C-alpha cells in the first residue's frame, strides 16, 4: 500500500468512526471508501421505518478488475435497485457477486433484483433453513411499515451455498474469506474478510453504537465463537453490521464484552439455581448504557441469555 494512500486512508477511517449513523429520512444510499477499492454504506441505527425502507444496516462493496462484489442485498426489491444505482456511481463494473451475511431481512431480501441481473448470490448453508422459515415472516412484518415500497419483494434464496467454517474465494483476482462459526444473531451469520486490505465486514456479528439484538433464532454461545474468530483475524478496519466503521477495540467494547458479560452472569445464575427475574434484575448493564436502545433491549437480552443457558 502506498504511503500517501495509507495516510489518507487512516484519516478517512478516523473521520468515519465519528459518524454514528444517518438520521431517519428518505433513503439515500452512498458508498464511502474504507480502503482501496473497498466501500461501505452505513445505514440508519433506528428501527425499520418507511423512510429507511428497512435498510437499517450496513452494506459493503468490493470493486475488482472483472466485477463488483456486493455484501448484502438490502431489505426489498426496490431498495436493491437503489443499491445498484449507488454502486454505479462508484464503478462501471457490473455486480457479479452478492454475499448474504445472514438471514435477517436487510441481508438478503433484495436478492431477487440481483439474481435477475445475473449475479451469483452466496451464503453459508446454515442460513438456508432460517431464510426459508423467516422469509415470509419478514415480508408480513414489513408490509404495514413499508407499504408500497415492499412491492416486488419476494424471498429469493442464494444460488450458491458454502459449507465450511472458512471458505476462501476468488472474486476477480481478489481473495475473500468467508468466516462462519455457527452463527449468532442468525444461524447463517458470516463475516467477509479481505486479507489484502485488512478490512472485515462482520454482518450481524458486530454491533457498535446500538445495542445488539437477540431473537429466538439467536445463540449467544455461537455468537461469541464468531466474535472470537473476528479477534483472531486482527483486522485493521471493522465494518460492523450496525453502526459506524470502527476498530476491533470498539467492537470488543460494544459487542464482545456484552456477550461475555451476559453469558458469565446468566451462567452463574443458572448454575446456582437463581430464578430468572432475579438474574435479570441483578445483571449490571452499566457499561453498555451508552448504546442506543439499551434501556429497551437489555432486559430482553438478559431474558433470552438466561433461557438459552438453561438449555445448554
Automatic annotation (TrEMBL):
GO terms for molecular function: beta-lactamase activity. Keywords: Hydrolase. GO terms for biological process: antibiotic catabolic process. It comes from the Bacteria. Residues 56-242 form the Metallo-beta-lactamase domain. Its EC number is 3.5.2.6. The keyword Hydrolase applies. Signal peptide: none annotated. Belongs to the metallo-beta-lactamase superfamily. Class-B beta-lactamase family. This is Metallo-beta-lactamase type 2. It comes from Tepidimonas charontis.
Amino acid at each position: 500500500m502506498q504511503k500517501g494512500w495509507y495516510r489518507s486512508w487512516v484519516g478517512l477511517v478516523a473521520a468515519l468512526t465519528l459518524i454514528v449513523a444517518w438520521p431517519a429520512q428518505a433513503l439515500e444510499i452512498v458508498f464511502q471508501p474504507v480502503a482501496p477499492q473497498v466501500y461501505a454504506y452505513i445505514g440508519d441505527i433506528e428501527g425499520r421505518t418507511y423512510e429507511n425502507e428497512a435498510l437499517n444496516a450496513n452494506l459493503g462493496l468490493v470493486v475488482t478488475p472483472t466485477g463488483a462484489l456486493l455484501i448484502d442485498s438490502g431489505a426489498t426489491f426496490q431498495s436493491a435497485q437503489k443499491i445498484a444505482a449507488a454502486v454505479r456511481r462508484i464503478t462501471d463494473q457490473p455486480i457479479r457477486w452478492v454475499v448474504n451475511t445472514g438471514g435477517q431481512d436487510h441481508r438478503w431480501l433484495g436478492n431477487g433484483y440481483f439474481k435477475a441481473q445475473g449475479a451469483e448470490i452466496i451464503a453459508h448453508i446454515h442460513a438456508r433453513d432460517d431464510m426459508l422459515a423467516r422469509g415470509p415472516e419478514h415480508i408480513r412484518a414489513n408490509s404495514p411499515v413499508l407499504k408500497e415500497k415492499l412491492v416486488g419483494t419476494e424471498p429469493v434464496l442464494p444460488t450458491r451455498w458454502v459449507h465450511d467454517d472458512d471458505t476462501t474465494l476468488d472474486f476477480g483476482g481478489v481473495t475473500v474469506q468467508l468466516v462462519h462459526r455457527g452463527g449468532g444473531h442468525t444461524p447463517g451469520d458470516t463475516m467477509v474478510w479481505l486479507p489484502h486490505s485488512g478490512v472485515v465486514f462482520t454482518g450481524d456479528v458486530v454491533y457498535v453504537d446500538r445495542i445488539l439484538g437477540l431473537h429466538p433464532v439467536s445463540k449467544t454461545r455461537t455468537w461469541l465463537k464468531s466474535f472470537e474468530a473476528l479477534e483472531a483475524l486482527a483486522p485493521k478496519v471493522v465494518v460492523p453490521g450496525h453502526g459506524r466503521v470502527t476498530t476491533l477495540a470498539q467492537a470488543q467494547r460494544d459487542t464482545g464484552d456484552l456477550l461475555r458479560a451476559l453469558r458469565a452472569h446468566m451462567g452463574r445464575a443458572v448454575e446456582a439455581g437463581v430464578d430468572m427475574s432475579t438474574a435479570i434484575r441483578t445483571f449490571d448493564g452499566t457499561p453498555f448504557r451508552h448504546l442506543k436502545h439499551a434501556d429497551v433491549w437489555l432486559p430482553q437480552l438478559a431474558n433470552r441469555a438466561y433461557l438459552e443457558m438453561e438449555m445448554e
